Amino acid sequence: MTLATPARSAHDLLDGHTAATAEDTPAWNLLKDAAVELQSLQAADGSVPEGTDHPRAAALIADIVDAISALIPLFPHDDAYLRASVVDFARWRDGGFGVPDFLDSLVAFQPQEHRVDGIRHLVVFPMYTQNGSRDRHVEAVLVEVIWPEFIARLETEYTNGLFVSLRLVDFTPGYDTNSAVLFPETVAMRAVPTFTWGAIFQDREAARYRRVTRAAAEITKLELPAAAAQMLDDQALTEQTFVMWDLIHDRTHMRGDLPFDPFMIKQRMPFFLYSLEELRCDLTAFRECVSLQARLSVRDDLDAAEQAMLEHAELVQYAVIFDRIFRFAITGSRVRNYDGLGGQLLFAWLHQRRVLHWTDTSLAFDWDEVPAAVVALADAIDELYWRSIDRPKTAHWLAAYDLVRSVVTPHPASAWARGLSDDVLAGLPKGYTDAVLDDEFPLSMFFEALEKKMRPVIASTEGITGRD
Question: What's the short name of a Pfam family annotated to this entry (predicted)?
Fold first, then answer.
């Protein structure tokens, strides 16, 4: 199948713009408007179920095809993908608008092959957005790669060929949410290929961090270290810090002395296992940055990339602590909130080791002692994982619970805290999971009070980008 001749002039749809200003082209506006209207005709699975809507859906597909076709010259590195996308849209239309199948264009999209700072991608798929819409609707996103020289150098040591770091430029409503990732598994497709990339919107993560941390520091009267304070006034600096953090975090999921499937894909298990896995990866990033800082700070012959690594290694440590404590712990519902629990665990661990202080209604840290305390928590989780290799699954679950409850107080009504009955212990793993309360580890008094004060700030970060 070949590209149809666009009904509109590509010249008119581009209006003299380049990829650097693609969001201002008539083509992008046509694509975005058509996708938004098409979403209103789609069912949750992405199909257009009402036959009476098919003529309008076909007209909208024509607009989308015209727009993509016009934009192709601006994205030569995505030529194969964008051409395959046009074919997938035509096939979906010609097949009667059933459940969409965009496997061919998804396989052709390989952003990990173009990790060049500032390069842009046009992304159009029927997909759901994590922490956003669960409907597989057509979404269109313009993105820009964040890949400074020091990250390119760092990636040779912390190899992660699947990791793509992005900045949001413009998007349809599925990304006007809390979603900060672009994952291939969210796309509607007939079969599941081997995934070769995963992308994170570091500009959104950085913008949320800056707004939340600034407000939380004011509320808790925390005097930020100078380097940490600098991040609150510098979006680009914070973006690059999050790239460094996520680069190391992401690769950690499949490294170390791990349970057989540490990522727990498509498994049903107690949510605190997810808490420990995500926290393990964050604390590994923290540990590695402590090591990098120690290694680089004693040298006086650093080149520009190494100097940037040294600077950002310190910043990652602040970002991990403040994002986990100030945002993760109080964001989202209390229903099996595994990221929230990870933040609670880190806060309580540091407090109980007396390197974090809440005294006279003010928060303070003994910063010289914080790195060792955080690394000690990382060591405790690593020890749990190492021992798990010799344990039955449910015994590992019980040991993981013991680690968490030794730091964070469970709900008074918890069956796990009282001790599971023999019937549950002798039964299937499902019984263990069913016995976990939705809010097994409620917020402490500190976090209850902080959440009430921070609620408007947290809500204001929905849909935020680095330009806000």
Answer: DUF6421
